[in-house]
Amino acid sequence: KKTTTKRDFLTLLDYSKEEILNLIEEAFKLEENPIQNVLQGKTLAMIFEKSSTRTRVSFEAGMLQLGGHALNLNTQELQLGRGEPVSDTAKSMSRYVDAIMIRTFGHDKIEELANNASIPVINGLTDMFHPCQALADLKTIYSLKGKFVGVKTTYLGDGNNVAHSLMIGAAKVGMDFTIATPKGYEPNQTVVEKAQEIAKETGATIIVTNDPIAAVTDADIVYTDVWASMGQESEQQERLVAFKEFQVNDELVKYAKDDYSFLHCLPAHREEEVTASIIDGEHSAVFDQAENRLHVQKAILKELLL
Ligand code: CP
Ligand code: NVA
Asked: How far is the CA of 293 from the centre of ligand 1 (A)?
């Protein structure tokens, strides 16, 4: 049984500005020097209750590059899928592996897992947050713009997991962040208030609006995500209508800075939230962004497991 104190990575709210900047700096170092045998003999259990390409593959490759091992576990194959309590799963797994990464629905479930595990738990996406994505986004933005202060990042679309984490990340590092959503799809009010509170200390501005043109005006970064997230498939049709004005297309990006960059966490739906002309165009950095998932997650793994 492990008795040492552990730290989780559930939301960027739990990490200070300095800690976030240190993780990004370490990710840059890992990009330069990717193969390090520091996690030899260590195992990461990866539990997926939803689909994943980038998170799954980057965590598995990342563990291997650090000398460790990753287990790919789907809920249906675990007793969790047959009703075993999350707490018993957490306690049992803590006896075998060194960390758990989980992608699930409710954020309360990951908190329950973390509270019952004696090993670090990493959030690989919940309905509420996607902190690994936001850390990769911050690294990408820093690579593109060379700074955070004075950079305007605009997110268009649904005010949920990816937007929440990016908003918190922006507030922490002092980057200006505007989110434009259709009415009824605004970000969680508590998250907005927390981000605005943090922003007061870092000098960031956090703006929530329903006006896509005002939001994109003078943006350095234009960011979007799918209109119907995993678990919202039945709302697909009504969302196509509600989000129409928020599509990132050639017309809308005319309002952004001339040297704006386009980001998307992926997977993307071309001609829905973004046109092919933009995501496959010269301003798009979505695959550098995807690559950065690997670098930042290795930094997180080193931070939590060493
Ligand atoms: N962006 C992201 O988390 O991708 P996957 O769903 O493919 O893991
Ligand atoms: N908001 C999306 C992000 C996928 C990485 C979802 O939750 O499905």
From this structure: 9
